[in-house]
Amino acid sequence: MNWLLDLTPDEWNAVRLSIKVATVAMLASLPPGILIALLLARGRFWGKTLLNGLVHLPLILPPVVTGYLLLLTFGRRGPAGAFLAEHFGIVFSFRWTGAALACSVMGFPLMVRAIRLSIEAVDRKMEAAAGTLGANPLWVFATITLPLALPGLIAGAILSFAKAMGEFGATITFVSNIPNETQTLPSAIYTFTQVPGGDAGALRLTLISIVISMVALVASEILARRVGRRMDIE
Amino acid sequence: MTLSVDIMHRLGDFAVEANFESAGRLTALFGPSGSGKSTLINLIAGLIRPQKGRIAVDGRVLVDTAAGIFVPMHRRRIGMVFQDARLFPHMSVAGNLRYGRWFTPSAERYANMEAVVDLLGIGHLLDRRPAKLSGGEKQRVAIGRALLASPRLLLMDEPLASLDEARKAEILPYIERLRDETKIPIAYVSHSVAEVARLASEVVVLSQGKVSACGPTEAIMQRLDLLPAEERGEGGAVLDARVLRHDEAFGMTVLGSPAGEIRVQRLARPTGTPVRLRIRARDVMIATERPAGLSALNILAGTIAAVRPGIGPTVEIAIDCNGAIVLARITEQSKHTLRLALGRQVFAVIKTVSFDSATTGAGLPGEADG
Hints:
The structure holds two protein chains of two kinds. By secondary structure, chain A is mainly alpha-helical. Helices cover 79% and strands 0% of the residues of chain A. Chain A has helices at 2-5, 9-42, 48-60, 63-74, 79-87, 96-121, 124-132, 137-148, 150-166, 169-175, 185-194, 199-231. In chain B, helix 2 (93-102) packs parallel to helix 4 and helix 4 (135-147) packs parallel to helix 5 (165-181). Chains A and B meet through helix 7 and helix 8 of A and strand 7 and helix 2 of B.
């Protein structure tokens, strides 16, 4: 076990950075993810198919293309990037925040899909019952729809996290591979494989990524089971 | 309370056109399945928006398409009990019960948790999850949940239809209590004569989306022609009776009704308890002289008040017994042979065993005997 935990500071940084990026990516995409999932599950509006396609685009496009598009839009000279940097001081390019953005975009379709399916599975009769008890639509959503869709919410969040842990193509294209700033686990492993004698380091990081993924998966499984048991849906 | 409804709503090639007004304690919306009862109740609750018309409760307009008024359901303060209880699975029974309270303005909260829990006998269920309840318990919790939102009107959409007979018998007394011990007016959807006769003070009969009759329960239950074909045999006189005494030696109970004393099988109800008695028209025989040497115990003297043609080769004969009408359904042949005609003095004969729990109403489970 010792050789596994005997990481260089750079390697430790890559691990920490990966977890930070994945957590931020997951949390930041939850609110818009829920909103878009709700729109797709319940909304009836013009352009729904278009929105659905747009959300799924990162799943279909080569990650490099998504990364390049992010670079064009959120890069220093990109329209959105320039605006955000000027007015809010938020800079994405070549920063860890950019890695988080790339990861959340890549994981977004998976998250929206899981949440949408669980919202669609919520019995609308329950919502009607809550309505007759005096709850307005917003309260119905907060107290009935969301709690009943919780298993899907958890699944969506975990998928997003897992995707972010493994994201490589879009991240490296958008924010490059800068140690201590944008070098996440996959980028670090990639770097090790490119230098002679890097096998041991690559293997260490690989094992660490397996452990992190397993822990996340098991944790989500336990959480989902607990929620499911609490609800005991017949 | 007055519920006044005048609406037109079309769903495909089915249209609900209803115009009635009811001021009863418990108004039954009665009709066979597909007659538009549930659509009507959903319109009153605000789950559906009518294409045309007006609905008002106690003068408070809920919908008036002409004036462009549509009060959304969460502001109507109309409680609803669904056929499938619809308890929230992610909350405990107590959580379900408290849900509507949150949304009721404190000045309008009249329902009291303890009183409701007590009324429905659900105190032992509070910590449980809805999935762990029986069908009857679920329905009682659902009634409690609707009551605790302090509604101005309580709607019940076939609350017993998905339960077996034993469960129905378990809940009916609670609904009777609700009707008698609270002040909330109730609109009750049902296709069952037994439920309507026992619970309703007024009946609105629906058939194919239209109101075919509307009036006091006693009057409607005698109009066998208004009842759905499969329920026609259940129709007959409805009498408000009272437990006079129990005959322990023979295991019987004597009821005092306006038509005279009626003996039924032992009821687990104390002396003095009101009992709404239904005498099925098909269970009533007619004799022209007081019969002797007959096993039937109930013989009521009266005069023929009406003779109406029935379904098939039958006639319906209304017998006025001390001012209360008892309805008999007999064959054309019997009528001919006995020369039954208006004003004739006759005797209505009813076997004690023809009364069952569906026509006498069983007591509350566990209620004191005596």
